[in-house]
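ZP: hey, is the S-adenosyl-L-homocysteine complex queued? I don't see it on the tracker
AM: it wasn't, my bad. submitting now with these inputs:
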Amino acid sequence: MKKKMSLKGLWTQDLEKLLSDLGERRYKANQLALWIYDKGVTEFDQMTDLSESLREKLDSIACIDAIKVRKAQTSDIDFSEKLLFELEDGERIETVLMLEKDRITVCVSTQVGCPLGCTFCATGKMGFKRNLTPGEIVDQIIAVKDRRPTHVVLMGMGEPFLNYGNTIKALKIINSELGLSFAAKRITVSTAGIPDGIKKLASLTSKIKLAISLNAPTDDQRNELMPINKKYPLKTLLEAVRYYTDRTKRRVTFEYVLIEDFNDSQKDALELSKLVRGIPCKINLIPYNSVPDVPFEKPSEEKIVAFRDYLFPRCPTVTLRRSKGEDIQAACGQLCTTIKA
Ligand code: SAH
Ligand code: SF4
């Protein structure tokens, strides 16, 4: 039997078209969107403000899929949670919920695995399976709605800009008042540095935040960490970032994973500060989290602090991200669904 079309992931224009094809009024798309995304229902019967005949018509042609939680783990250190989801085709993804003083952030995946193969990242090690649909991206947030997340970051498994169309559809749903209602300033999309995606994002009217995983101050170092740098070296990447900041008048965040004796010296800090000079930005330092079979180490606490303190007066804003959930492999770069069951 052919599977019914899932409505999760459709946006109002698509829902309007569906309704008009059914001979219904288009404005009901707003009600439908609120039920699917805001209330998170999965049965048409629960949509009590739609007529019974419409609910029956919808039920005969469509469904509202929900991804299934296969495993949930909570960190003993900081109470962050990691959820393992199983998708319709049996593929698996992970989503992390991070609890901080003033915010609850849900870290969402955009692909099953990742094709970019960064050498320090567990997701990169597992290879690429497929892109997530818009529905699968937003469903990771709907699944943790009861924890009342305040922020969304697209920093889970995968490279969002290699799944650009689905990511943008999902972002619209996450941002809209008819969807998940997260203000744009509470949503961040992180890229390994796909210039085309950065430039396209600059033309979106919504003020979603952009983070770029820079991770090294020179092409030689970055080539070793991120193979994508051979295709888009720093010059090309930073041209795209400058285009973005000029066009949007918004600041970007550069993420920089600190790796012992690789990119954590004073010279590295100096070169990094020169590299980003003139770009309105914040630098977010992330001490490396261990990944099986990767020969890197996290620098000592003194070296981390020394790097930050050397960088700070040279760059206007520098933050140090303390990763969450390291004991349950939920920290940045540790997400992987092939090593463990
Ligand atoms: N593919 C996108 C988004 C997901 S990765 C990107 O690369 O930006 C999210 C962040 O985790 C990136 O900034 C990446 O540099 C960082 N990261 C990956 N592996 C890590 C590790 N082992 N330790 C610390 N951070 C890591
Ligand atoms: Fe992919 Fe980002 Fe990991 Fe690189 S750091 S392999 S781009 S998920």
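AM: back. The chain has twelve helices and 14 strands.
ZP: great, adding it to the tracker
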